[in-house]
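Q: What does the assembly look like in three dimensions?
Context provided by user:
Components: three
Sequences:
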Amino acid sequence: MKRYLKLVNFEIGRFMKIYLVLIGITILSQLIGVIVMAKNYVANANEVIFVDSLPLEQFIEQYGEMGMMDVVGSIWFIGPIALCAAAFIFYIFFIWYRDWVGKNTFIYRLLMLPTSRLNILLSKATAIFIMVFGLVSVQLILLPIESMLLKWNVPFDFRIDMTVSEIINNNSYLFILIPDSFIQFIINYGIGFMVVFILFTAILFERSFRWKGALLGIIYCAIASIIFLAPLIYEIGFEASFFYTEEIFVIEIILGILVTAMSIWLSKLLLNKKVTV
Amino acid sequence: MNVNLNKREPVYLQVIRHFKEQIATKRLEPGQEIPSRRELANQLKINPNTAQRAYKEMEEQGLIYTEGNSPSKITKDEKVLGAVREELIGQAIDSFIAAIRPIDVPLDEVVGLIQEKYKGDKA
Amino acid sequence: MIEAKELKKRFGRKQILNGVSFTANKGEITCLIGINGVGKTTILKGIMNLTPMDSGQILIDGEKMSKDMYEKITFIPDAITMIPTMTIAEAMQFMQDYYKSWNQARATELLRFFKLKQEEKISSLSKGNTAKVNLLLGLALDVDYLLMDEPFSGIDIFSREQIADVFTSHLVEDRGVVITTHEINDIEHLIDKVVLLDNGVVLKEFRTEEMREDEGKSVVDVMREVYRG
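A: Here is the predicted structure of the complete assembly.
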């Protein structure tokens, strides 16, 4: 356990620089985005109202009011989130391959540590989870700050004020990242973590059997997906619904746990018996 | 300590010969402490196990002795020391004769030449 | 004692190891010799469970490899097994964090012996010094067995001499050492035992002093006989 925690800390430390840069980009882009968008909106309003002498009501009718939903739909806001998402998808692979590629033989050291090799896998997964949650928390903290910035920059008459939960509920991708119920949260992130473990298993297949392993890895991903989606595939295949929503929910949770456990078990087997440096 | 080691002869024998030469030439005095096997291995760049074997052999031949935990020392036994000297002289003469005999030089001439050279070298 | 029995390993179509058996004793230096690509490194990785063997058995003091064995046997590959952005001090701290067998006093001694500065970054070291740090990280573990892959290749002559000095010092004393090399000349007098490999099999296994004593042959003489004959 102590070594596992040390490994988690170690893995996070190794990614810290990139991680901080990602957080920095997110903060800067979103805050600058709010200001730029607000200024543009106000500038436009001034021009239309004072130069073109359009009444305020008509301006609002024509251009709409400004609110956080405009901000969260913009590239300033989505851009860094997409960047972070891409970085973490890349990191799922990078966290393994950086120890193998080129002259770097750090994987030798990791595999020769006097600790269960499963700890290496779990620590890498944990590092990813912690950092993803970190990013989500940053986003949660940023939302009220951004609302406030908007208030300072756009006069009352031109804006729609929204609470943080209103902002989230009005935006489909934010709602995936930050669901409003605990169960939804478990579902979203449970699926996310399951995918991480499936991909880890695929990577370890590749690292064990190289080209053949890459193929096995892809096949494994397909099998895992089919198992997990089996009830839905079944229903679509028969064009009927056999289960109540609650039943589907329970079955999916069980299948999710099953697929995750299977992935971890296979990864452990590969790490102990088959992995090749 | 600097020794040129030959790669075809057992290293432990070469080490023993080296010690005998040192003893015969008085560079190692009777009763003088000798390096530990580890130090010797390090000085000669040889395997410590080989150094160990050389010391064991020398101990058996009475060339060195060890009292308790103190470092090994060169023997003070006059008989052994004399034998070492004789052995080295014998070996040197043998190899000299082996080299000179094929040239077929009369013994008197050889002895004369030796006397001349030997004295000359010393002076 | 490290026992390798009938090790077989195939990479794709190439049978790298085809029934390799040998033993290496504690307190002795055993040298695996063979041209490059003959599978020497694969054998060491096999012993450490870094590359699985297709068949065969490896025992260390009669036991199979397990995670706890990494406190008893260690492997020093030909490239450094640390993150290049770490300083030497950080690398040593890493080792201390994970290994019970890490001996800090010995590590400090090795730093002095190799004249290394611990605040230096690994990536900024010369080839020779990188090799020394690599060696240090392995040697400072209180393990019974040390496996070293080509410790003398690709470094300058002075570093080579320093590394050779390690073998005759107490830093290696009483441990079982297995080294691989394709260049025996510098270290002929250092090794106890030789295992000659070719085409995936052991061609000859012999003790160097016995070979000199019984047949008057140097290691290179035997190699010439075995590889050319």
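Follow-up: Chains B and A do not touch (no CB pair under 8 Å).
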